[in-house]
Specification:
This protein is of the alpha/beta class. It is built from twelve helices and 24 strands. Helix 1 packs parallel to helix 3, helix 1 runs parallel beside helix 6 and helix 7 runs parallel beside helix 11. It is globular and about 60 Å long. The structure holds shikimate-3-phosphate.
C-alpha cells in the first residue's frame, strides 16, 4: 500500500507572489518529548503550543494507555499528570503509533525499563521501518523483544525487571535511538552513557535537564558528543512552551524563495543549531533569508525569518551537515531543481528508512516533474533548470510520506505546468494546517479533474 484508504490527490498551480506572516505549528520533536517527559514526572506539566497533529496525538493516546492523564484545556493548553519514572501501568491494548517513528521509538525506550509488557504497532509505512536499531541497545538494559523478522512492528516488549545501565555508541546518527536509550536509562541504576559520533538534535538532553535530571555532555571526536545521564532522577512536572517547527517552516520558506515576487515573515522559528542546516545551505545557494530578533525562549533559540524570492545556484552538501537537516532534503531537492547548475547532496543513507525510502521517492518525484538527476546509495545529484525552467506537469507518488507530499506541492507553485501529488492525507501527521495556510499566502491548489 502506498496511499491512504481514501487518497486525496491535489494539484499545485503556478501561483502569484506569496505574502504574509504564516503561523507555523509547534515543533514535532519537542511536542512528543513534552508529553513523554510530562508522563514520566510527578505533578503537573503544562504544554503551550503543542503540535496537534496525528503523530503527536497518537503519542498522547499511548501515554493514556500507560496510565498518565493527558488532557487539552479549552485554552489550548495541554495538561499532563505523570506517573513518575518507572510508574507506567501495563496497557490493556496494543499501542498504535500510526505513522510516527519518533513516537514508537521513544516510547519503546520509556517502556524498556518499566516492569510491564506492551505491544507496539503502527500503519503500513511504520510497519516497514527498522526497529532493530532501538531494540539492540534496549535489550542491553535487560528488555526482551519479540517481533517480526528483522525487528519489524508489530512487536512486544517486556521491560527489564532488574535493569542495568548501558554505555552505547550510536552506529547510525539518530536522535530517536539516542533518545530511546536515554529514556530507558531513567529507570536504571548508575549512569547511562551515549556516544554519538555526529551530533543529532538535542531536544531530549535539554528536556531531561528542564524536568530535573542530571545530564553531562562532553565533546567527542570532531563533531560528536558523549552524553551521560544519572539514573533514577526525580522528574517534576514543568511548564513547556513549544516553538514553531523549523522542519514545517521549511515548506513556506522554500515556496517564498521559488515563487517570483514573494515575501514572507516567519516568526519565532526554532534555530537550534542541530536543526538549522537548511537555512545555512539555502543562504549558500543565494537565498535571501534575514534572521532578526534572535532570542532564547523556553531553553531554545528562536528568531524571526524574513525571506524574499531569490535566484539560486547549485551547491554541494557534505555528510557532516546532514543530521542538522535530515528531514529537509526533500524540500532542498525541490529548491535545487529551480537553481542554476547542479546540486549534490551527500550522506543521505538515513533517508532510505524514513516514512518512505525518501531518497528513492524524491528521485522519482524529480523525474516526474521533468528534472534530470542521478542517485547513489547515499547521495543525490539534481540538475537545476533555473527559476523559470522546471517543466512540472507530472503526478508524484507520495508513498504515505507527508514531507514528499508537501515538497512537491511547493514545486508545483513555481513549475510551468503545476504539479499533482497522489495523496495529501498524510500531511495531517505533521502539518494539518499546511494547505489552508499556504492558500492564505496566495498558493493555488486544485483537486485534479475538478
Ligand atoms: C526525530 C529524529 C529524526 C527525524 C525525525 C524526528 C526526533 O529521526 O528524522 O523526524 O524527534 O528524534 P532519526 O532519529 O531516525 O534520524
Amino acid at each position: 500500500m502506498t496511499t491512504s484508504a481514501n487518497p486525496q490527490p491535489l494539484t499545485a498551480q503556478k501561483s502569484r507572489p506569496l505574502a504574509g506572516n504564516p503561523q507555523i505549528p509547534g515543533d514535532k520533536s519537542i511536542s512528543h518529548r513534552a508529553l513523554i517527559f510530562g508522563a514520566l514526572s510527578v505533578g503537573e506539566t503544562t504544554v503551550e503550543g503543542l503540535l496537534e497533529a496525528g503523530d503527536v496525538l497518537n503519542t498522547a493516546s499511548v501515554l493514556r494507555e500507560l496510565g498518565a492523564t493527558v488532557d487539552r484545556g479549552s485554552d489550548a493548553i495541554w495538561r499532563i499528570r505523570g506517573v513518575g519514572v518507572g510508574g507506567f501501568a501495563e496497557p490493556s491494548n496494543v499501542l498504535d503509533h500510526g505513522n510516527s517513528g519518533t513516537g514508537v521509538r521513544l516510547m519503546m525506550g520509556a517502556v524498556a525499563t518499566a516492569p510491564i509488557t506492551a505491544t507496539f504497532t503502527g500503519d503500513a509505512s511504520l510497519r516497514k521501518r527498522p526497529m532493530r536499531r532501538v531494540l539492540d541497545p534496549l535489550e542491553r538494559f535487560g528488555a526482551e523483544a519479540v517481533g517480526r523478522r528483522g525487528g519489524l512492528l508489530p512487536l512486544t516488549l517486556k521491560g527489564a525487571t532488574n535493569p542495568v545501565p548501558v554505555t552505547y555508541e550510536l552506529p547510525v546518527p539518530s536522535a530517536q535511538v539516542k533518545s530511546a536509550v536515554l529514556l530507558a536509562g531513567l529507570n536504571a541504576p548508575g549512569e547511562t552513557t551515549i556516544i554519538e559520533p555526529e551530533a543529532t538534535r538535542d531536544h531530549t538532553e535539554r528536556m531531561l535537564r528542564h524536568f530535573g535530571a542530571e545530564v553531562t555532555i562532553a565533546a567527542a571526536g570532531k563533531a560528536g558528543r558523549t552524553i551521560t545521564l544519572k539514573g533514577y532522577p526525580m522528574l517534576t512536572g514543568r511548564p513547556v512552551v513549544v516553538p514553531p517547527d523549523p522542519s514545517s517552516a521549511a515548506f513556506p520558506l522554500v515556496a517564498a524563495i521559488l515563487v517570483p515576487g514573494s515575501k514572507l515573515t516567519l516568526s519565532r522559528v526554532m534555530l537550534n543549531p542541530t536543526r538549522a542546516g537548511l537555512i545555512t545551505v539555502l543562504k549558500r545557494m543565494g537565498a535571501s533569508i534575514k534572521v532578526t530578533n534572535e532570542r532564547i525562549e523556553s531553553g531554545e533559540t528562536v528568531g524571526d525569518l524574513e525571506v524574499t524570492a531569490s535566484a539560486l545556484r547549485g551547491t554541494t552538501t557534505e555528510p557532516e551537515i546532514a543530521p542538522s537537516m535530515i528531514d529537509e532534503f526533500p524540500i532542498l531537492a525541490v529548491a535545487a531543481a529551480f537553481a542554476e547548475g547542479t546540486t549534490r547532496m551527500n550522506g543521505l543513507a538515513e533517508l532510505r528508512v524514513k516514512e518512505s525510502d525518501r531518497l528513492a521517492a524524491v528521485a522519482a518525484g524529480l523525474g516526474q516533474i521533468g528534472i534530470t538527476h542521478r542517485m547513489g546509495d547515499d547521495w543525490l545529484e539534481v540538475d537545476g533548470r533555473g527559476a523559470d525552467g522546471v517543466p512540472g506537469g507530472g503526478r508524484v507518488t507520495t508513498h504515505m510520506d507527508h514531507r514528499i507530499a508537501m515538497s512537491f506541492l511547493v514545486a508545483g507553485l513555481a513549475a510551468r505546468q503545476g504539479v499533482t501529488v497522489d495523496d495529501t492525507a498524510f500531511i495531517s501527521t505533521s502539518f494539518p494546517t499546511f494547505i489552508p495556510m499556504m492558500e492564505k499566502l496566495g498558493a493555488i491548489f486544485k483537486r485534479p479533474n475538478a
